[in-house]
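Entry for the shared binder. Reason: the reviewer on the internal report wants the predicted structure included alongside the sequence.
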Amino acid sequence: MTAPSTRQPRTRRRHIWRLLSVLLLAGVLLVLSALSLSPSVPHPGALSSSDIRNIEQLIVDNSPEQFRSRGERQLQLNADELNLLTAFVLANVPQTRDIATRFSLDDDTAQAWMSIPQHLGPFTVYLNLHAQFAQDQGRARLMSLHAGYLPIPRRIMRGAENMLGDRLESASAVNQELAELRHGISSVALSNDRLHLTLQWEPAVLEQLRAQARQFFMTDEDRQRLLGYYTFIGDIARQAAPEGSTVSLHNFMPDLFARAGERSANGSAIAENRSLLQALSLYVNDISVRELLDGIPDDSVYAPPALRVTLYQRHDLGRHFVSAAAITASAGVGIAEVLANSKEVYDARYTSGFSFSDMTANVAGLTLGEAATESETSARALQIWLRDARAESGYMPEPDSVGDGMSEEAFAEHYSDRNSPMYQDRLQAIEARVSALPLYTRPDTNQDAGTP
């Protein structure tokens, strides 16, 4: 006969194991209810060229006429526009390229679906989120959220919203500026099948954010590398300054890429090219390195002479070319192309008019920036080629200037829109002339192609 004192510990252990088994089973059921073997939103794949042009037009349509003027901006997006902009953002951020989303707007309500792939060894499962929004007390609010079949309690949703807001405002200076920008959205509303945003346009906040945002993904090594190139650019500019206030871009390119080739011997050619183009973009666009990097001493070595850097004797072409190359090297060709094309459409509407010369510089800069960072092989081959380049024509063809300065009305009268066959033929001709340059057409990028 077993003593009662012996039975009690065994019974207690059985109860503990049963409780643990129930808790484990509950956890498994929760995970299974939140995850699925298939996405609720199929991935849309690559955006078409027509989609990209629609995004560019949206940017222009919702931009203020004067960027440096304070004021209130009203933005209205229908479901198609919201889906398109979201797809573009997700596709151009490396960490979110596998995520798919879809929005629907119905009068004063909205729904959002998101599928996030989770890789578990050889298997892929999906976290499918479903959110419902509605107009409540004068603003759009999140009303419910489900992870798969699992509802997320409203208290947790509200707590997460408040926690994120508090952390945003109490963290670093960068996040405080983001908080200011967030507070600049004075209203978010749902009505008439549209999302309505009211923005308080504050150029000062946007300028601060732009300067800080350049540092988000820069390591200390990146900063030191960029500073080294900026200092070297200053040395070249000081040598050119006695000749006048204007200097060709070609005064910088061979020496800079020769330096990059030397520094790449024991490191990454992609990283060297990226920092080189970032530093060159700062100088060409008259932006002080102090706006990008903290802690720069007030020393003349970091204040090079302000020269107008030209390409084919035009200051604007130098800026377009270098900016497009730097943005491509830093953020990818997708974002760079949209920003460059949007700028031309904006100019056609508000400022100097549409320019095919600028488009030539943009395309050449995009192509160079992509070749400079596509792979270690292409990055090193480009360094060799540009080190030995003898003229600007080695990396950009003579600009196509026929029809420059067209207003938006004149452009529409001549080309209808940017989806028209006539405009597409003109753009493809520019792209073909850039692609035909030996710099971008060498069949074997592993070998020195000789002097261009």
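Summary line for the report: Residues 14 and 299 are 75 Å apart (CA to CA).
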